[in-house]
Design a protein that fits this description.
- The protein is an alpha/beta fold.
- Helix content is about 40%, strand content about 15%.
- It has three helices and five strands.
- The strands form two sheets. The protein has a three-stranded mixed beta sheet. A two-stranded parallel ribbon has the order 1-5.
Length: about 100
């Protein structure tokens, strides 16, 4: 298998785990969202970017972006529908740091 290309993310999530309030965390199964999946959902769904533009921001191809965002949406839907915790961690990402003025 080919090594994954580094993805560039602009934001890290403020929270790394979202869980249902109805069950304690140790009684809930979880799904794992990588940082690049989190960023893909943020760009596509929150910022409303087209896939081509979002892929450029992550510095990956459009088909790769499509696979990442599809995977992320499936995991989020699984977590919401099946009452699972959604944890955000991992992935081959680097954070874009803003330059100081």
């Amino acid at each position: 298998m080919r090594p994954k290309k580094t993805r560039w993310v602009k934001y890290l999530p403020g929270e790394r785990c979202f869980k249902p309030m109805c069950k304690p965390l140790n009684k809930v199964k979880g799904v794992y969202l990588t940082l690049d999946e989190f960023e893909a959902v943020r760009l596509a769904d929150l910022e409303g970017l087209e896939q081509v533009d979002a892929a450029k921001r992550l510095k990956i191809s459009r088909p790769t972006f499509s696979r990442i965002v599809s995977s992320a949406r499936n995991k989020i839907a699984d977590g919401l529908v099946n009452i699972k915790a959604i944890r955000i961690e991992g992935g081959c990402c680097k954070v874009i740091r803003r330059k100081s003025p």
